[in-house]
Amino acid sequence: MNNTPIVKLGVVAVSRDCFPAELATSRREALIKAYKEKYGDIYECPVCIIESEIHMKQAIADLKAAGCNAMVVYLGNFGPEISETMLAKEFDGPAMFVAAAEETTASLAVSGRGDAYCGMLNASYNLKLRNVTAYIPEYPVGTADEVADMIHDFIPIARAIIGLKNLKIITFGPRPQNFMACNAPIKQLYNLGVEIEENSELDLFEAFHNHDNDPRIADVAADMAKELGTGNKIPEVLPKLAQYELTLLDWIEAHKGSREFVAIAGKCWPAFQTQFGFVPCYVNSRLTGRGIPVSCEVDIYGALSEFIGTCVSDDIVTLLDINNSVPADMYNASIAGKFDYKHTDTFMGFHCGNTCSSKLSACTMKNQAIMARSLPVEVTNGTLEGDIIPGDITFFRLQSTADNHLVSYVAQGEVLPVATQSFGGIGVFAIPEMGRFYRHVLIQKGYPHHGAVAFGHFGKALYEVFKFIGVEDIGYNQPKSLPYPTENPFA
Question: Helices (H), strands (E): how many in the chain?
């Protein structure tokens, strides 16, 4: 299932009437050539905006006809601040503003100087006047090659923004009792353009039993067995898991309605096991592996975060508890002197078994050990265990506070190649200055214990996505040289 947008970018070069339009056109052509040589196809809008709302309308019509769902407004010269910002306001999709640098000393003659460095200031001012949000890179002025790189960086950001406007989050059941951490005020979902469909566990239970004896179960169970390989330690549970997977996939098709993309926030305890007869962890991992994020414990903003991470990374993500400290003896034996991390930079990220098998060093179908402490073992089967693959990661979360303010955090680090010697889907994580980040962002600002994990360093794009959607409070793991506002300077 394709569950993230395909971005088609269109480039519109703009020109002000007292500057030569030929300069904007030639710079646009050079940019398109540079981009295609580096990254592949991109659409070149032939309409040049020359301080005209008519041309602006023509450009939008041209982009729409070409199937563009994201736009680059390229100031080839000073640019028409009114019509270029109206262009961004009326275009149905995310827009980026960049500007051309002057190429050579010779080009500084009257006919070759574009003054787009100045024009970007007026463009940004007019965007604010019109309450238009656009993506502007850290330094938005460059040569054709440099701007091509900026545009390429915009693609994952645009993919996330387009995805949010076309996303439905489907939930099943309220949060477990005495488990308020993953609170989910839904007002901010609507503000982001996200739809939500909330269902009860009884609805899901009925749908599951409507799939009793579904003729597709055997094929899905066989596919599960193939994926698990030698890790298929509880084969008798696979038919039930296959039935549940078909239930969710059919529900998605029947309920996504007008939306193109879907994420699920599912209930997984406490009554789930006794009524369904298994735990849903492995199925959650398989759907996430198809690009359909499934969060545990009805964590709506966890599912939303996973979806954003899927769009930005164009890869599988997972959702983990920021779970337990690394024992001192493990740190001393396996980390100290081998990696440049303090003990407080490390922790273990864990969940019962929702991480896709392709993101585990090895995987085994087991029973859920925590649930088995209070339930019959036979109803806790269906979790996927294994150590998470070592490599770069980004830990992040978008969250609505109880009083409906969007907040977020982003922290880059890595999963270390250290055997966890524990259970579940788990890894030894290291994030620079994690101890301070843990105290002055995660604890200080009341974040829940769930964090989304993207496999790679995607902090730059995620930070820009959160800025674009209006998040003012974006926490990150600040270096020691930059104290947090609540950090005691005498400690």
Answer: 15, 19
- Span 293-334, pLDDT tens digits: 999 888 999 999 999 999 999 999 999 999 999 999 999 999
Distance between CA atoms of residues 300 and 169, nearest Å: 7
Max Cα-Cα span within the chain: 83
Under a CB-based contact definition with an 8 Å cutoff, are residues 44 and 24 in contact? no
Q: Determine the pLDDT at residue 274.
A: 86
| Inter-residue contact 437 to 377 (CB < 8 Å) | no
Q: Do the bridges between strand 70-75 and strand 9-15 make them parallel or antiparallel, or are there none, so unpaired?
A: parallel
Overall pTM > 0.90:
yes
Per the structure block, which two tokens stand in for 342? 């303090």
Judged by DSSP in three states, 318 sits in: strand
Q: Nearest-CA neighbor of 468 among 147, 193, 120?
A: 193
pLDDT one-digit tens code per residue, 3-21: 999 999 999 999 888 777 8
Query: What is the C-alpha separation between 441 and 233, in angstroms, rounded?
Result: 40
Distance of CA 349 to the CA centre of its chain: 18
Mean pLDDT of 225-235: 94
DSSP class per residue in 202-251: HHHHHHHHTTTT-TTHHHHHHHHHHHHGGG---GGGHHHHHHHHHHHHHH
pLDDT exceeds 70 at position 289: yes
Rounded-to-integer distance, Cα 215 and Cα 438, Å = 49
Q: Half-sphere exposure of 490 toward its Cβ, with a 13 Å CA cutoff?
A: 0
Q: How far is CA 376 from CA 45, 122, 381, 382, in A?
A: 64, 67, 10, 13
- If you average pLDDT over residues 78-82, what whole number do you get? 86
| pLDDT score for 110 | 72
Nearest to residue 411, comparing CAs of 321, 343, 345, 358? 345
Place of tokens 């947008």: 5
- What gap in Å lies between CA 366 and CA 235, rounded to an integer? 10
In this structure, the number of other CB atoms found within 10 A of the CB of residue 142 comes to: 18
Residue 180 has pLDDT above 70, yes or no: no
Where residue 204 falls among pLDDT bands split at 50, 70, 90? very high
The phi, psi pair for 263, rounded to 5°, reads -130, 155
Closest among 454, 484, 448, 455 to 322, alpha carbons compared: 448
Cross-strand pairs, 451: 320
Given CA atoms 175, 178, 181, 184 in this order, what sign does their dihedral have?
positive
